[in-house]
C-alpha cells in the first residue's frame, strides 16, 4: 500500500508595497474594467528596494520552522524564475537566514512558473525514499515586465513555503500525474535582461494547449474523471486565466458547464492572486491557500492542480484534502500578510521598477524600506548581504 505523502504545512509572504490597478489605469488611460474584469486583477505586490526572492522566501518559511522545528528537514528546494545568482542557489541564503542545520541538501530549480511543482514532486520522491525526512519547498518570485507594456498589469511578487512529508496535515498528493512539454517561445527572460519578454496571446494559446496535453496524459495514466474534483487550482498569471483554462478543459472533455459552474470550480482559488498579482512559481499554491482558507469543509475531496510554466512544461495532478486540515490553516496570518502592505503611488512604483543594482563590485547599501523580518541590505565585493530585522 502506498504511504500518504503531501503538504503538511503551507505559509506565504508577499512584498512590502501594493499598487492598485486604479493607479496604473489612471497613468496609462486604460478603462479600469479591463483590469478588474478583463484580466481579473485588483492590485499587485511591489517589492521594496531591500526585498527579493530570498527575503520573501525566508519570510514565508519562518512560520513553518517556528511551528515544526528543523529536526526532520534534510532538503530545501527553492523554485524560482527570478533568480538572483547564476551559480549559487537562493535557497542557501534562505537556509542561512532561517538557521537550518548544516546537514541539509539545498538546491534551486527553474522551469518558469512550473518550477515549484517539480520541487513538490521531487520532494515527494525523497520522502518516499526515507519517510522519516521532510522537505522544505519554497516557491519565490518577482514578476517583472517592461513599463508601459501589456504585461505590466500582470506583475506581482510572493513566496509560498510548503513542508512536505508523510501523513500530511493539509493535502495528500496523488501518485498519478499528467505531463506535457512543448518547446515554445511564449515567455522567456534571457540572462542579460531584468524584465521578461512575452508574446501575450501566444502565451495564452500555449497555456491552453498545455491544458489539453496534461489532461490527455492524466486520463491515459488512469487519473480521476473531471467530475470528481471539488475545485481546481490553476497557475494564475492573472486570475481570469484560471477561468479561461477551466472553460477550455471542460469544453475539451465535452462536459456542459455554465458560467456559475466554472466560477464554483475556480472562484475561491483566485482571492489572493487577484490582489497580489502574478507570483509565477508560487501562484498555483497561493490558489490552494485561498481555497483552503475560504471553502466549506473539503475533507476527503480531491482538488485538481494544473501547473503551467512557459516555454513550456505543465503537470496536472490531484491532491486530497485531509481530515482535520482546518486546524492547521494560517488564514488569519495570510489575511494579515496581504493587509500589511503599504500602498505605493504610481511614481513610487516606477522608481522601484527602474532600480538596478550597481555591477562595479563596490559597497552599496539599499534603502531601508521593508517592514518584513528579513532584508537585502546591499552589495559588497559583488556579494549580496542579507540581514534579519
Ligand atoms: N472591460 C472589461 N473587459 C475588458 C475591457 C473593459 N473595458 N477592455 C478589455 N477587456 C478584456 C478583453 O476583452 C480581454 O478579455 P478576453 O481575453 O476574455 O477576451 C481582456 O480584457 C484582456 O484584454 P486584451 O487581450 O486586449 O489585453 P492585452 O492585449 O493588453 O494583454 C495579456 C493581456 C496578454 C494577458 C497581457 O497582460 C500580457 O502579455 N501578460 C503577460 C503574459 C501572461 O500573463 N500570459 C499568460 C499565459 S503565460 C503564463 O501563464 C506564464 C506566466 O506566468 C507568464
Report what the structure shows.
With 389 residues, the chain is of the alpha+beta class. It has a single domain, classed as Peroxisomal Thiolase, Chain A, domain 1. The protein is built from 12 helices and 17 strands. The strands form 4 sheets. The protein has a 9-stranded mixed sheet, with helices on both faces. A hairpin with an 8-residue loop joins strand 15 and strand 16. The longest helix has 21 residues. The N and C termini lie far apart (47 Å). It binds acetoacetyl-coenzyme A.
Average pLDDT, all residues: 98
Which ligands appear in the coordinates? acetoacetyl-coenzyme A
* CATH class division: Alpha Beta
Distance between the termini: 47 Å
Helix content: 25-40%
Side-by-side strand order of the widest sheet: 5-4-6-7-1-8-13-12-11
Counted by DSSP, the helix tally is 12
Low-confidence region ranges = none
Here the CATH topology equals Peroxisomal Thiolase, Chain A, domain 1
Structural class: alpha+beta
Assigned CATH architecture: 3-Layer(aba) Sandwich
Which outline best applies? Answer: globular
The percent range for strand residues is 25-35%
**SSE string:** EEHHEHEHEHEEEEEHEHHHHEEHEHEEE
How many β-strand stretches? 17
Q: Describe the biggest sheet?
A: 9 strands, mixed
Oligomer status: single chain
Q: Structurally, how many domains make up the residues?
A: 1
Gyration radius over CA: 20 Å
CATH homologous superfamily grouping? Thiolase/Chalcone synthase
